[in-house]
Amino acid sequence: MSSHSDPSIDTPFDFETFCQNPVVREAAPLKIALLRGPIYHDDPVWEVLLKYRSDVIRFFAEVGTRLVLDTTDGFAYLDQAEEGEPGSEWPKLLHRDRFSYDVTCVLVVLREWLLSQETKTREDRAPLRLDDLLAQLRPFSRKKDANVEKEERRWREAINKVLTLGFLKRWKGEEAFVVRPILRTRLAVDHLKTLRETLEKHTTLRDQVLEEAS
C-alpha cells in the first residue's frame, strides 16, 4: 500500500462554504422544485431556470435524467432517459405515475378539452368550469344509476388528485380551472384515442350488464 495519501480523500468537503455560493443558493430551490414535479411560468423559480438552463440540464444529465422545457406554453419537468438511450441503463431516479380509473377519466376529458383549445394562445384560453367538467365525467360513472351526490363526491376527489399532479390549476378562487398544457406531453393524441375507446368499452359493458339484470 502506498504511503502517499490521496489529497482528494483527505481534504474534507466544505459544505458550509459551498452552500454560501450565490449561484448554488439561487439554483438550489429550482432543482428541488423540479425533483418534486413540474414547474410553470408563474412559479417563482421560472426565471432562475431560464437563467441557469445549461447548468440545470448538465446537473440532471449526470444521473440520466433529462430536462424537458417548453418556453412557449411555459412549463418544465424532468423525464427519465428512454430505453436504449444513453443513461437508460442507470438506476431510475424517476418513476411513471400509475393512475386510477377515475383519474384516467379526468385526464382524458382534460386532454380533449385542450385539443378543443388548440388554436388559441395561452392568454386566450377560457377556464374550464367545474360544472362543465363534472358533466363530461358523469357518462364514465361505474354505475349508470349511481347516487348523484356520491358520484359527484367521487369525481371531485379525482379532480383534486389531478390538481396535486399539476395538470390543473384553480382559476382565481372560482369553481373553475386552468388546464396545464403539460398534459399534452403526458397524454399524446394517439394514446388519447386508445384510452377513450377503452373507457367507452367499460361504459358499454356496464350498460349491457344492467340490461341483462333488469
The amount of beta strand, in percent, is: 5-15%
Write down the CATH topology of the largest domain.
Answer: Arc Repressor Mutant, subunit A
Largest sheet: 3 strands, antiparallel
> How many distinct helices?
10
Residues in helices, as a percent range: 40-55%
Using the 3D structure, state the CATH architecture of the largest domain. Answer: Orthogonal Bundle
Side by side, the strands of the main sheet go 1-3-2
Query: Any idea what the shape is?
Result: elongated
The parts where pLDDT drops under 50 for at least 5 residues are 206-214
Number of strands: 6
Element order, helices and strands? Answer: HHHEHHEEHEHHEEHH
> What is the CATH level 1 assignment of the largest domain?
Mainly Alpha
Would you tell me the overall average pLDDT? 83
Cα separation of the termini: 85 Å
Rg estimate, integer Å: 23 Å
Q: How many domains comprise the coordinates?
A: 2
Q: How would you classify the helix and strand content by structural class?
A: mainly alpha
Describe this structure in words.
This protein is mainly α. Helices cover 52% and strands 11% of the residues. The protein folds into two domains: 7-80, Orthogonal Bundle (Arc Repressor Mutant, subunit A), CATH 1.10.10; 101-213, Arc Repressor Mutant, subunit A (Orthogonal Bundle), CATH 1.10.10. Strands 1-3-2 form a three-stranded antiparallel sheet. A hairpin with a 5-residue loop joins strand 5 and strand 6 (176-179). Helix 6 (101-116) packs across helix 8 and helix 6 crosses helix 10. The chain is elongated.
